[in-house]
Design goal:
With about 180 residues, the chain is an alpha+beta fold. It has one domain: Chorismate lyase. Strands 1-2-3-6-5-4 form a 6-stranded antiparallel β-sheet. The chain is globular. Its EC number is 4.1.3.40. It is found in: Cytoplasm. It catalyses: chorismate = 4-hydroxybenzoate + pyruvate. GO terms for molecular function: chorismate lyase activity. Its main location: cytoplasm.
Length: about 180
């Protein structure tokens, strides 16, 4: 990666989140990527031969470690903090930061605490009861490059998960004619 993961994580944590209703999208393709209601992992998989996950962190944290804008979307309990880089054909495409409350980790068909290097979307969207709300989008400049991001709450079997995704410079969202 061109910059350190720490710099990208900092940009994600400091993001000024906006409603898609007020955010100014560059074009309809960008709007489609940022407002995708299905699995981002499944969408990214269409643009490469091999989608992989580099697991950066996966450990339990206290609710006092959450930013106020995060705690508004989740119950006040311990949670799993999962940080990953999604890579398409070994190119870093998306930095993901996921907060999974303890009560949301174990479901009928999945155990998100044991996700490891499997893309979260591959597991979560296997559930028949999945929906997305609280979608927010944003942009930031990192090392002179405009980067896009989105954050949303996923409800899996009526249990919340907060997912933030920063599209890194090589991500297909920035490519011309980026339709699969």
């Amino acid at each position: 990666m061109e910059l350190s993961v720490t710099e990208y994580l900092q940009a994600l944590r400091e993001m000024h989140w906006q409603s898609p209703k007020v955010f100014v999208f560059k074009d309809s393709l960008t709007r489609n990527w940022l407002t995708e209601q299905g699995s981002l992992s499944l969408l990214l998989e269409k643009y490469c031969n091999d989608l992989t996950v580099e697991l950066l962190q996966s450990d339990m944290k206290s609710p006092t470690d959450l930013a106020l804008s995060e705690s508004e979307h989740l119950p006040k309990e311990d949670y799993l903090l999962r940080k990953v880089i999604l890579k398409g054909d070994q190119q870093p495409w998306v930095l993901g930061r996921t907060l999974i409350p303890q009560s949301s980790m174990i479901g009928e068909t999945h155990n998100l605490a044991d996700q490891g290097e499997i893309p979260l979307g591959f597991t979560v969207f296997k559930s028949t009861k999945v929906r997305r709300d609280s979608l927010q989008v944003g942009e930031t400049v990192v090392a002179g490059k405009l980067l896009l991001a989105r954050r949303s709450r996923l409800w899996v079997d009526e249990r919340p998960i907060l997912v933030a995704e920063l599209f890194l410079p090589n991500a297909p969202i920035y490519a011309q004619g980026n339709q699969a």
